[in-house]
Amino acid sequence: GAVVSQHPSWVICKSGTSVKIECRSLDFQATTMFWYRQFPKQSLMLMATSNEGSKATYEQGVEKDKFLINHASLTLSTLTVTSAHPEDSSFYICSARDSIQDYEQYFGPGTRLTVT
Amino acid sequence: AQTVTQSQPEMSVQEAETVTLSCTYDTSENNYYLFWYKQPPSRQMILVIRQEAYKQQNATENRFSVNFQKAAKSFSLKISDSQLGDTAMYFCAFMKRSNDYKLSFGAGTTVTVRA
């Protein structure tokens, strides 16, 4: 099956700094990527939809200035958490939609962010 | 907006036995997909099974099968011959066939398989 990678898998940063998370589709082109946030033992919450070459669409309640999303190519989307605070600590997951099989989404392994 | 409800927060099953997870959803759409995803302790999301709403036949994947009742908006997952590796959190998800392809997830059911 198709593979999606995320980097880093775990990051610790200090409060007030910014951190970038990368999401790559390794063996297919993804015109659309999605970013989710997950708290322990809870479900995935969709944060935003990232379309290659256009601005991301954010879900209601998600601060677009805090969570900057860039989808610069058909295989790479990045999420930058700006001015991070301890409440931003969470597990962030991306998924990529296969441009050919439109119903198929492939998930990355996730990134654990800890803000101290 | 679509709502997906999983009413069982936790379930426990003996190895080799069968467990059924329930899922209901609310939608006015007629054309959509339903999914079951598994999230083991590694937290990697894994697709277990997919059902197209226009197909009446229930999907099966080896030991995993669904009972899709479109009129009742119900989509349960049956795990047969449970194995220790099935221990995970299971999420039911809905996707309407449209331009956005967004997944709406249920709250999840934690399944523990006992040896």
Write structural notes for this entry.
Chain A has strands at residues 4-7, 10-13, 19-25, 32-38, 44-51, 57-58, 67-73, 76-81, 90-97, 105-107, 111-115. With 116 residues, chain A is mainly beta. In chain A, the strands form 2 sheets. In chain A, strands 2, 4, 5, 6, 9, 10 and 11 form a 7-stranded mixed sheet that branches. A 4-stranded antiparallel sheet of chain A has the order 1-3-8-7, with no helix packed on it. Chain A is globular. The termini of chain A are far apart. The mean pLDDT of chain A is 93. With 115 residues, chain B is mostly beta strands. Chain B has one domain: Immunoglobulin-like. Chain B is 0% helix and 52% strand. Chain B has no helices and 12 strands. Chain B has strands spanning 3-5, 10-14, 19-21, 24-26, 32-39, 46-52, 60-61, 64-69, 74-79, 88-96, 104-105, 109-114. In chain B, strands 2, 5, 6, 10, 11 and 12 form a 6-stranded mixed sheet that branches. In chain B, strands 3-9-8-7 form a 4-stranded antiparallel sheet, with no helix packed on it. In chain B, strands 1-4 form a two-stranded antiparallel ribbon. In chain B, a hairpin with a 7-residue loop joins strand 10 and strand 11. The model of chain B has no long low-confidence stretch (mean pLDDT 95). At the A-B interface, strand 4, strand 5 and strand 9 of A face strand 6 and strand 10 of B.
List the helices and strands and how they pair.
The complex is a heterodimer of chains A (116) and B (115).
Chain A: E1 4-7, E2 10-13, E3 19-25, E4 32-38, E5 44-51, E6 57-58, E7 67-73, E8 76-81, E9 90-97, E10 105-107, E11 111-115
Parallel strand pairs in A: 2-11
Antiparallel strand pairs in A: 1-3, 3-8, 4-5, 4-9, 5-6, 7-8, 9-10, 9-11
Chain B: E1 3-5, E2 10-14, E3 19-21, E4 24-26, E5 32-39, E6 46-52, E7 60-61, E8 64-69, E9 74-79, E10 88-96, E11 104-105, E12 109-114
Parallel strand pairs in B: 2-12
Antiparallel strand pairs in B: 1-4, 3-9, 5-6, 5-10, 7-8, 8-9, 10-11, 10-12
